[in-house]
Write a structure and sequence with these properties.
The chain is of the alpha/beta class. The chain has 3 domains: 133 residues, Fumarate Reductase Iron-sulfur Protein, Chain B, domain 2; 162 residues, FAD/NAD(P)-binding domain, CATH 3.50.50.60; 168 residues, 3-Layer(bba) Sandwich (FAD/NAD(P)-binding domain). Helix content is 32%, strand content 18%. The strands form 7 sheets. A 5-stranded parallel beta sheet has the order 7-6-5-8-22, sandwiched between helices. It is globular, with a radius of gyration of 23 Å. The protein starts with 5 loop residues before the first helix and ends in a 6-residue tail after the last helix.
């Protein structure tokens, strides 16, 4: 695939990023796409692997290796190298319903398992993927695909995140009449309100939604299943229901001072910030503004990083992000070999921006918040922390111990809790009567069937907090099983 000697002749190139300080003045995407000449060189780096690990899509030691939707990566890399863009788009769309999303916000486990990455930087797979779909839209190659025949079967999908949208897309193409219910005011789930505009511009999401509508899918917003419409009503009106509600129950911090004014869940902050950016009406009571304030984010993951970037654009006075674990190493360690996802140090877009503005990386490692202290009016005033030491005991268990004498007090006006998600919200699941395991819907992988006849589940509601590519993968697979349930046979992949 690509050029036979391309991986030896060309180095990996990264997408051009706007200067960190200049991009703080707007909410636009922070990267600029490659030129076609550069993309051809990057496609040329793809090797003619005997086994292309990049699209194996497996979990090894709890980490995703390769592409879960099994993108035909070497094939479209080769086609881009040869300038055959339309064919590259056709190959890409065989496995991926929404490359414009994954090409922007997927962490690219495909690159971690790229064969070139054994000894050199990986092929720029994610950038090429984004370029293919963007060119498809720009050239007018992406047009509504109207199903030739309808089956007369009706399916309701609860939740409009990547799993729900992928499931809806597949079922609609199979000829079923699909209605997607979303409790928010806009379609997209976390694609719309959980990922900031500078990583995924909302027009990109809305463009896809308009296309799906043109293809025959019905979207109903501002409607919470279990409240505005009951589970019983859905089951009586539709031949099948698919629960794609995501894992939106945020994990809380049990700590002294949690009740103080100024302590918020990270996702609440990101949601209201995006709504404000889009010009939606936001209740003053829910609006969170970091301008001129000291901000601390508790939680070291991507959601926390997005809070950092959002606070910077709102002109916060300072921002710090607390992480539980030590800094990642500069290179793979012996227990993190190829083709596992590489657990190595990177400087995410948010940290680049914070470093450019304040002179230092905002991340603090191996730190534990002991308590949050407020002023006489009940507002956050400061955080008290202590450094931790991470060790492994004789039984192989990870242990965190406090380091005496490392106590510190941090001035603070706003705290954002970004320590993950517990799973799906339970009320809607209880109304349907579906069984749960560890707070997640009990729907076996591969069948996606619940204990309730005609009710299926896919995505984070079933598997817990995960990657966008796993959500798309499960949405596609669940659609296949729903089609089989409705028709007796299925031709969906």
């Amino acid at each position: 695939m690509g050029k036979t000697t391309g991986f030896m002749e060309y180095m990996r190139e990264e997408e051009v990023k706007r200067h960190p300080l200049s991009r703080l003045d707007d909410w636009n995407e922070y990267t600029s796409p490659f030129s076609e000449e550069t993309l051809a060189r990057q496609g040329a780096r793809c090797m003619d692997c005997g086994t292309p690990f990049c699209h194996m899509g497996m979990e090894i030691n709890g980490l995703t290796s390769g592409c879960p939707i099994h993108n035909l990566i070497p094939e479209w890399n080769d086609l881009v190298y040869r300038g055959r863009w339309k064919e590259a788009l056709d190959r890409l769309l065989k496995t991926n319903n929404f490359p414009e999303f994954t090409g922007r916000v997927c962490p690219a486990p495909c690159e971690g398992s790229c064969t070139v990455a054994i000894s050199d930087p990986a092929v720029a797979i994610k950038s090429i993927e984004r370029a293919i779909i963007d060119k498809g839209f720009a050239e007018g190659w992406i047009q509504p695909r109207i199903p030739e025949k309808r089956t007369g079967k009706k399916v309701a999908i609860v939740g409009s995140g990547p799993a729900g949208l992928a499931c809806a897309d597949q079922l609609n193409q199979a000829g079923h009449s699909v209605t997607v219910y979303e409790r928010a005011d806009r379609i997209g789930g976390l694609l719309m309100y959980g990922i900031p505009n500078m990583k995924l511009e909302k027009e990109i999401v809305e463009r896809r939604v308009r296309l799906l509508e043109a293809e025959g899918i019905t979207f109903i917003t501002n409607t919470e299943v279990g409240k505005d419409i009951t589970a019983e009503e859905l089951q009586s009106q539709y031949d099948a229901v698919v629960l794609c509600t995501g894992a939106q129950k945020q994990r809380d911090l049990v700590i002294e001072g949690r009740e103080l004014s100024g302590v918020h869940f990270a996702m609440d902050y990101l949601t209201v910030s995006t709504k404000k950016m889009l010009g939606s009406t936001v209740d003053e009571e829910k609006w969170i503004d970091t301008k001129g304030k000291h901000v601390i984010v508790i939680g070291g993951g991507d959601t926390g990083a997005d809070c950092v970037a959002t606070a910077l654009r709102q002109q916060c006075k300072s921002v710090v992000q607390f992480g539980k674990h030590p800094a990642l190493p500069q290179k793979r360690t012996e227990d993190n070999p190829w083709p596992l996802f590489p657990l190595v140090f990177t400087l995410d877009y948010a940290y680049e921006e914070a470093k450019a503005k304040f002179g230092t990386d905002p991340r603090q490692y191996c730190i534990q918040t002991k308590k949050i202290v407020g002023d006489e009016h009940g507002n956050v005033k400061e955080l008290h922390t202590i450094q931790m030491e991470k060790t492994v005991d004789a039984n192989g268990n990870v242990v965190f111990n406090e380091i005496p004498g490392t106590e510190k007090v941090w001035p603070c006006d706003l705290v954002f809790i970004a320590i993950g998600f517990e799973g799906p919200e339970q009320p809607v699941l209880k109304q349907f009567g579906v069984e749960t395991v560890n707070k997640k819907v009990n729907a076996p992988y591969g069948t996606y069937t619940t204990n309730v006849e005609g009710v299926f589940a896919a995505g984070d509601a079933r598997r817990g907090q995960s990657l966008i590519v796993w959500a798309i993968h499960e949405g596609r697979e669940a659609a296949r099983e729903v089609d089989r349930f409705l028709m007796g046979v299925t031709h969906l992949p």
